[in-house]
Amino acid sequence: xxxxxxxxxxxxxxxxxxxxxxxxxxxxxxxxxxxxxxxxxxxxxxxxxxxxxxxxxxxxxxxxxxxxxxxxxxxxxxxxxxxxxxxxxxxxxxxxxxxxxxxxxxxxxxxxxxxxxxxxxxxxxxxxxxxxxxxxxxxxxxxxxxxxxxxxxxxxxxxxxxxxxxxxxxxxxxxxxxxxxxxxxxxxxxxxxxxxxxxxxxxxxxxxxxxxxxxxxxxxxxxxxxxxxxxxxxxxxxxxxxxxxxxxxxx
Length: 251
What we know:
This protein is α/β, with parallel strands linked by helices. The chain has a domain at 4-85 and 158-248: Rossmann fold, CATH 3.40.50. The chain contains 11 helices and 10 strands. The chain has helices at 42-49, 71-77, 93-98, 102-105, 114-124, 140-154, 170-183, 198-204, 222-225, 228-235, 239-248; strands at 4-13, 16-26, 31-35, 56-61, 64-65, 78-81, 158-162, 190-194, 207-212, 215-221. A 6-stranded mixed sheet has the order 6-7-8-3-9-10, with helices on both faces. It has a 4-stranded antiparallel sheet with strand order 2-1-4-5, with helices on one face. Helix 5 (114-124) packs antiparallel against helix 6. It is globular, with a radius of gyration of 19 Å.
């Protein structure tokens, strides 16, 4: 049984469709990379999965309609890392990470695992040394790792990452992708990422979905989606030739 199934999903703003008839299944251990040119609907698709925009079609989590999950249930099972984070409050790193346990603390039984999860998340992301520092004084890369730690503390089954390394330096790009790769090795977990960098998508993904002109024009294994004919049609250029040109500068 798939962890998450999307069937004939569509989103429109007014009379204008953003995308339509998109279907895929996310299984345990998968890292699904959503790729495609700007404006193809990638970020809107993940917003639909998170319930942020209305949609047609269906999204099934385990064996039930995701729309039937209460907000607390949804937060305990699906975590989302946005492209950017606006922070206008002087919370410490640890306080922001602790917010990832909010959905658990509302349970009648409390949250006996909470503090251990928070400590582990800080350690995994290398933010334990900055636990008492205000998030207002962090770099962009550090702040992204704080919110990644918040997700790890949240301990969902599915991570949804919308361009998680957007505007980050190379070292932070590597750190974020390595951390997520490590996280998904635990049983029962899976990841969906919106990614513009095709090299990162190819390096870390197990499955891919290529969006173009309001449809999923290719999906499945990395080799199938990264077929030159598919990529070249979507991006309007010889993608592999361009990548080889870039690589040649380092040889």
